[in-house]
């Protein structure tokens, strides 16, 4: 299960649809160096996204 504390790089490994889901939300920097250290909560904050909505889509 993906949580707010899961690192973006790990999310991409856990869910084969994660890249598309995150890009659909406007996160286009999935390959940037910070994705290996940034949690989903941090990324949502930086991109102004609703964390609950993103988590719901990633955990379907």
Description:
The chain is globular. The longest helix is centred in the C-terminal third of the chain and has 8 residues, at 40-47. The chain is 50% helix and 0% strand. The chain has helices at 8-14, 18-24, 40-47, 51-58. It has one domain (8-58). It has 60 residues and is an all-alpha fold.
Q: Short summary of the structure?
A:
The chain contains 4 helices and no strands.
Please describe the topology of this protein.
Blueprint: H1 8-14, H2 18-24, H3 40-47, H4 51-58
Quaternary organization: single chain
Distance between the termini: 10 Å
Question: What does the largest sheet look like?
Answer: none
SS summary, helix count: 4
Indicate how many domains the architecture comprises.
1
How much of the residues is beta strand, in percent?
under 5%
Mean of pLDDT: 92
Summary tags:
60 residues, mainly alpha
């Amino acid at each position: 299960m993906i949580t707010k504390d899961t690192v973006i790089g790990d999310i991409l490994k856990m869910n084969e649809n994660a890249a598309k889901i995150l890009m659909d939300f406007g996160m286009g920097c999935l390959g940037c160096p910070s994705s290996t250290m940034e949690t989903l909560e941090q990324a949502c904050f930086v991109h102004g996204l609703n964390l609950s909505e993103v988590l719901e889509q990633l955990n379907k």
